[in-house]
Design brief:
alpha+beta, 2 domains, 5-stranded mixed beta sheet, 3-stranded antiparallel beta sheet, 21% strand, disordered N terminus
Amino acid sequence: MNIKRTRKMTDRGLINAPRMLLGMTVLILALIFSGASAFAQSQEPPQPKPSADLGDAPDSTNHHGMNNTAYPGVPGRFPTVFEGTPAGEGRGPIHHHPRVVWLGDKVSLENEADIGPDEEMDAGGNPINNILAKGVNNANNDRGDDGWLNRNVVLADCQQATLKVRVRKDPVAAANMKQVFLNVWIDGNRDGDWADLGTCPQNQTSNEWIVRNFAVDLTSFSGDFQDIEVKTLLVSNAKPDVPAWMRFTLSDEQAVLMPVDPTKPGISPLADGRGPDNGFNIGETEDYLYLPKQVDQIRPDFGDAPDSTNHYGLTNPAYPATSTAGRFPSVWEGTPAGQPSGPMHANPYNS
């Protein structure tokens, strides 16, 4: 009996040996491939640090294929995104070395308007892109826009206005530079671009491109910055009580013109806020949502229901005299993974 049992066990071992060998082979291969995968991941180059500057006006020609709303029912078609722009559309202006000469006192850095790393972070430590932050239909997220000093100026239709702008330079990096150019646009008819002209009395023309290649003399600066006053052309502002997107671009080159429109003979080509194919070397682009008679730039609106996923880590009671934590999505930035962000209305005056 013992001999038979031994033979049976031996036979079973011989029968199972190929299975055991196959299992060990699969395990070894799995370990090899997992190690190779981990090695490959460790060898992936790190994301480049943000080093350029772009605008933050709504651009529906973005990498996400999303309509980026300029006004209710009007998609933004402002040239903001630089890479991957569809044929026939203008590239957004990118400034490769913005901290040589720039607008205002600060400039935030990013490598693209709607994707990739951004220098600015929300309260949760997450990067915020200039437009479509968190993959949501939004814009106006650049927090370094501070060069336009008199945002309460009235921009009346068919009238000129004076804009006050701060230009700052790095005294070392810009030591050999003599001048840069300032251009300003306003979406006068609220159609989501800066490509139009308007009509005024006495056969005059109003403009969305309201400041054209204004030369800023860097050699005249008495210090690191200069506050300058710039006279506009006749402004196109057909809907003065409705917010309008504006762009201020400071650059080492003059504004890039749109292609000639064969359907409009005799009309000189205009600039619509786009940048050159290779980008600007220096400067900065700042975009604003302008509302007449409002001193500060338009700010977003949020809800105020109790939300315990807040920046302070506090339990926000849903009801008085209860321990029930409010879990209503109200906080927008820094929401923990898996939790919904609160609603953010970028343009509350439009509704």
